[in-house]
Amino acid sequence: MIRKYSLVRRLGVAALFGFTLAAIANQPVFAASTPTKATKTTSTTKRLTYGDITNNSTKRLGTIRQLTRTTLAETHKLTGKQVQQLVYLPLPKRLTAKNFTLDNEHLTIHLTKNNYGVKNVAIPLSKLTGIILNRYMPAKYDFVKPKTAKKVVALTFDDGPDPTLTPRLLKTLKKYKVPATFFEVGSSVIKYPNISRLVLKYGDQIGNHSWSHPQLTDLTNAKALRQISLTDAAIYKATGTIPYYIRPPYGAVNSRIGNLYDRPIVRWSVDSRDWSYLNTAKTVDHVLSTTTNGSIILMHDIHATSVAAVPQIIRSLKKRGYTFVTLEQLNEKPLLANLQYFGRNDFRGF
């Protein structure tokens, strides 16, 4: 039983021996307010709200909503059409909502009637470290700020997958032990699903870069949602997973678009301009001259000149003392829904 819970009064003496309501009455144990680690248990109990467990953060609640969708997809064999409709799954938007249960391993969301016929979605607490406050988590899932190198950068690549260049790039990244995030276009994923699988096999991450690379701010909400949901479905069909991150094409995003998706919006602080130069030497020079500590570097894995530039960029930045890290390592904590991230300590709302 989670150490911060106090038990409901009806348990009586049984509570002293650690029995849960579920064990006695064959009912789920609903989250109840409890003292922090440093305080003593009192007899006062109440049902927790999302506001309680997230420190009243709508961004953390949005992250929980998206984790509910992805967990449902990953624990049920959904069709592409069903994945596309996940955005319409009825989920709580108010911090005062209480439709969840906490135990030692899961946050279980109790759903209202939905088209999937699913009543409960159990999100592993391992995915909620840094999202749910430590006082409501078992000690093994407490968030502790990670120790990272003093000088860090993150590599990202847009517009793939490419059947030839992406595998070549993956081998380079593996050779230098460098992680990267690939923001993929759905219309290419359906052509080369094996390449998307290869990205994950090599230990890298996949983000959503829309279906056909439009400027999302020019679209209606329905069309903008469809651009992302179609790509979610394509990546899910290829890999069995749904991307955690979104990068809008051209970086075009506003509050209307940014708040549609319940996901972190990943921008960049270094535009390699590889798409403009189409020249390896110029791309290398530009990246090296503009990269600073905490940069997110934007490149593309659909240009041969870009892929050819990567080895020199890696070698040169490593000589300068940089360590290549994932986006979460760069941020030193989970990236939250409906925020846009430009680099380390550089994130903002809309």
UniProtKB/TrEMBL annotation:
GO terms for molecular function: hydrolase activity, acting on carbon-nitrogen (but not peptide) bonds; metal ion binding. InterPro entries: Glyco_hydro/deAcase_b/a-brl, NODB_dom, Polysacc_deacetylase_ArnD. GO terms for biological process: carbohydrate metabolic process. Residues 151-325 form the NodB homology domain. Residues 1-25 form the signal peptide. One of its GO terms (cellular component) is membrane. SUPFAM superfamilies: Glycoside hydrolase/deacetylase. Keywords: Hydrolase, Metal-binding, Signal. This is Polysaccharide deacetylase family protein. The lineage of its organism: Bacteria, Bacillati, Bacillota, Bacilli, Lactobacillales.
